[in-house]
Design a protein that fits this description.
Helix 2 (30-45) runs antiparallel to helix 8, helix 2 (30-45) crosses helix 9 and helix 3 (59-85) crosses helix 8 (177-199). The mean pLDDT is 86. The chain has one domain. The protein has twelve helices and no strands. The protein has helices at residues 2-25, 30-45, 59-85, 88-91, 98-109, 116-133, 147-171, 177-199, 205-238, 243-250, 253-264, 270-286. It is mainly alpha-helical.
Length: 290
Amino acid sequence: MEWFYFAGISAILSAIAAIIEKKVLFKERVLNFVLMLAIFNMILASIFLFYVDFSKITSISLIVLLFKAILNGIAFVGVMFAIKDLELSDALPLLVLTPGFVALFAWIFLKESLTNLEIFGLFLLILGTYIFSIKKSLLTPLKKLKRGYKFIILALTLFTITTILDRILLSQYKLQPTALMSFQHFFFFIIFLAMFLIFDKRKNIKNFGETFKHTWVLILILSFVTIGYRYFEILAIKNTTSTALALAIKRTSVFFVVIIGGRLFKEHDLLRKIIATLILVIGAILVVRF
């Protein structure tokens, strides 16, 4: 049960991180923010290098890790754009669908059977998504999606892939969690720097400096929290045979984000979103094979 505590700690820290991210993104540009966070994360994650056995690292594991970091980086930026564009209680709950995506893909492409409990879990995921989407009428979920929701759907798909790659790196390639943390955050820095240089039309170093001046304390705190929840998530995945189950427990963080973040930022329709998120979390846990 050690993995359960790791996943629980990751969930708590992830909830704290989401609230800090929303607070920073009220004023700051997304690409400025993610690059600055990547710098702090890379510096903190370099501590893990002292605990890495470099003889166990192979070139193929680093290539897989780089590919995984690119997908993870795109997903993370997508979530940050969603958090900036939407209310926090709107942006994050749909990420709970990740275990459901994994189960559904396994059923469609790998011909894995679904138990009655898993089918019921999928039903709860669909029900929770529908309740979450309803606003003024029953047809609201069918209307055109806001840009923020499109980012969440992209992130949801990519997180499904990267979670599987985490398991492959830790089990098949025997990559140490410390090595994964240190090299992954170095790759993140390179990826977010490239995004900043390519996609930020301003490329204004002065503007970036202003962001640093105003938010460096919050982002430093966020960096400690981010490194913490990512490390405990990796430990949870490493110490369980069910990657999806570890992810489902970690995703319970969204429930706390909706309650605490929703009240903190005075967001709308909070009761409906709390009920929908609770249904989503229960569905995500039921759909996972123990």
